[in-house]
UniProtKB/TrEMBL annotation:
Residues that span the membrane, as ranges: 6-25
Record protein name field: Uncharacterized protein
Source species: Faecalibacterium hattorii
Keywords recorded for this protein, A-Z: Membrane, Transmembrane, Transmembrane helix
Length: 150
């Protein structure tokens, strides 16, 4: 039994050493990619979350309350700072209400991606999730009553 454990430990060591050797080889072969990856990691310590679903509060009995967000850590040129941004992947129909960025507090980029408009940098994912929940609840009220928010 002890001999088997010795062989298993030796195999783990060989695999680990091979992996480290391969990574060193790749780093020496493509130093510009390694440097770019390291620079990206320094600039982007947070990354992004992937899709998250929130069901908004609705005092008017609407059944479609589903919002989906993807949270990303980005540099915002308007705010001149890094911030969390809540990209809107899905929201209910506005049911004929104006859908402009001012009425709905959404920004959009050249690709048509919308995100929740907020006037100051948000440095915590938890805070950005709270902001997006508040935004979704406000949009639900806007859909039902036309009441502007913000």
């Amino acid at each position: 039994m002890e001999e088997l454990i010795g062989w298993v430990l030796l195999a783990i060591f060989v695999v680990a050493a091979g992996r480290v050797g391969y990574l060193i080889y790749q780093n020496n072969r493509h130093p510009e990619q390694a440097a770019a990856s390291a620079a990206t990691a320094r600039r982007d310590p947070h990354g992004e979350t992937g899709p998250m679903i929130y069901f908004a509060n609705d005092a008017h009995g609407r059944t479609d309350r589903e919002y989906q967000f993807n949270y990303k850590w980005v540099y915002d040129g308007t705010l001149h700072a890094y911030t969390w941004r809540a990209y809107i992947l899905r929201m209910p129909s506005l049911c004929g209400r104006p859908s402009d960025g001012h009425s709905t507090h959404r920004w959009s980029d050249a690709n048509g991606n919308h995100w929740v408009c907020w006037d100051s940098p948000v440095t915590s994912l938890t805070k950005m999730q709270s902001v997006s929940r508040l935004w979704a609840d406000s949009v639900q009220e806007y859909i039902a009553t036309g009441k502007l928010f913000g």
